[in-house]
Automatic annotation (TrEMBL), chain A:
Organism: Candidatus Woesebacteria bacterium RIFCSPHIGHO2_12_FULL_41_24
Entry protein name: L-threonylcarbamoyladenylate synthase
One Pfam family of this chain: Sua5_yciO_yrdC
Signal peptide span: none
The protein's Enzyme Commission number: 2.7.7.87
MF terms (GO), sorted A to Z: ATP binding; double-stranded RNA binding; L-threonylcarbamoyladenylate synthase; tRNA binding
TrEMBL record, chain B:
Cellular compartment(s): Cytoplasm
Binding residues annotated for Fe cation, in chain numbering: H110, H114, D311
Pfam family, one: TsaD
Catalysed conversion reaction: L-threonylcarbamoyladenylate + adenosine(37) in tRNA = N(6)-L-threonylcarbamoyladenosine(37) in tRNA + AMP + H(+)
Annotated protein name in UniProt: tRNA N6-adenosine threonylcarbamoyltransferase
HAMAP family per UniProt: TsaD
NCBIfam families named among the record's database cross-references: gcp_kae1, T6A_TsaD_YgjD
Any one GO cellular component localisation term in the record: cytoplasm
Family, as annotated: Belongs to the KAE1 / TsaD family.
Keywords: Acyltransferase, Cytoplasm, Iron, Metal-binding, Transferase, tRNA processing
Amino acid sequence: MLKFVFKKTMKTIKTGSIEKIVDTLKNGGLVIMPTETVYIAAVDATNHAAVQKLIKYKNRPFGKPFSVGVADLKMAQVLAKMNQTALNLYKNFYPGPVTIVCSGKHKVATGIESELGTLGIFVTDHKLTIDVIKALGKPITTTSANASYQKRPFKIKDLLDFLSIKQKGLIDLIVDAGEIPYREASTVIDTTIDDPAVLRQGEIRLKDKNEVLSRSEESTQNIGKELWQKFEKYFGQRALVFALEGPMGVGKTVFTKGLARAMGIKDEIVSPTYNLEEEYDNGKLHHFDAWRIENNEELNNLEFSKKITDKTVIAIEWADRVADEIRKYSEEAIIIWIKIEYARGENERIVSWGTL
Amino acid sequence: MKILAIDTSTDETAAAVTQGIKVLSNIIWSQASLHAKWGGVYPSLAKRVHLERIDWVVSKALSSAKCEADNINAIAVGTGPGLAVAIEVGLAKAKKISLLLNKPFIAINHVEGHLLSVLAKPKTSRQQRPKDIVGFPAIGLVASGGTTQLVLIMRVGTYEILAHTIDDALGEALDKAARMLGLGYPGGPILEIMAKEGDPKTYNLPIPMLGKENRSRFSYSGIKTAMYKLVQNEQPLTKEKIHNLAASFQDKTFQHVERLIRKVLETYKVKEFFLTGGVSANIELRKRIRKICNEREIILSIPYSKKLCTDNAAMIGIAANFKFQRGEIVTSTNLDLVDRVPRARVDKKFPWEK
């Protein structure tokens, strides 16, 4: 038997069964119910009116998405495109709690997915939650029951203390399971960055091709230096783009260190992954990292084209991810494509390069 | 003395109101806060264009602090290090508010913000000033996705960088390892959970810069490469392998941090150690550094909440409080000189401060 809070007084406790919850959700109601981490505000995620009610209840600014709970992997795959990373996470974290952000298939009501069409899937093994979803046959929202930026609710009292009368009025049913033991909020992980559609942009065709074997970090740096010497004569006349491609840890930043040293830059060249861009010697060298960039447009948010017209030197790692965008500048800039691959020996790399 | 602080130097759009060292509100707009309060999701660049959310975040910071804009005594903003186009948004907003309200403007180094985040107190705290036992000099570790550095803090406002990374930051290395294990990016917090189940002795990854601690450099590119090859060799990955790989990687990267900390503590006799930045939320790292501190009877200080570990604006407000006390403010006539400084160093003054 479950305990329900009587809505009129918010105090009296009645008992009932899971059908009561499912019925309320079916009728577009908003149910406050427990999970393993917090009390959640659940509505049928496919019911437009119910989701609107939830948005009002949560007092959310426009465009903030809600995660949804599913009964199993099958239901998750109906709602979202689960790529290999998402499946991995599901497998490794099951039974949760974790929230996996995937590309949504737009099967849920407006306001659930983010502006960019991503959907957060909450993976749980909480029995009541799973049972409710199964009985309903549809996903439910699993956002925590507090209004935005209020305390996370571990017991019903915590929650009610912070709600306005208007918000309380929107609640159709409260399931009281006493105090939920404190647990970290579920971890949220975005898997959309791993979508292969973003990764592959078609073959890169080079006019000429050169290949050398590097036997050490130092010799990779020297290749950077040699390439600079080869193209230095164009410096100041046209932009120079060193477009780097190669797997994780292969030495793309190492190459750039050599390039920068040959250019006379004294500062330490560090990985630009986090900041997306590092600028050296007042804009003499721009070091980009396209790894976290999701589409061509984003490169322009970094004022990429301006750097081309300013005739600067650009080293860009993971260039294959934005190959189309870089290609657009093949008239204005000299684009040197550099591919670094792991070779047989421990420290050996094959470095091949050519111009677009 | 209430300060409205803004920080947009990285992925998060953040605003806060602080009073002295008390945090009255600390609002961070990130994808993480949509689902959990803080998780570790970095919005993509499209979302990094903070423009569309800065207004909401600022007004939320004011309303959560139950504070009218008129009651603010100064405006502070993080001007670097960070991504130029991102810093720009917060900077422009802060300048505008400063001129509009005719209130002093304070420019803060983002790394200084992290270092001083340990001094922050919750709004319910009775303490008005930093606890008297804060003994300077102190040493601070800032370990995040964007930077990893050990800083000597002679006193608030006087810093010396003792060691910094020559390639990847610690948080970045952890995030990338998670990605190699198919756990998404950024997965530092997930890697931590996986590592708990694993045996760190299973795999023999190299400890970075072993025996070269004298050079005072962090380096994570070598172990990243070794990890990449190891993961390739271990395909297909099982749950057990993932646990062990995560544990091995985390263990070796942390050993590198420990060795460097021990090294600097041999040279510099300090009273306190500040552990800050996003990675300071990692329980295992805290445990290891606590052990080092205990051995030397050094007090370990950690920000009071996770929200203060990751990028936030409250830490900017805390740092600004001290800068204001020292009179290091920018007057409205000099406001035009203030610009974004993407590669700002915590031990150097901003160009307009000279």
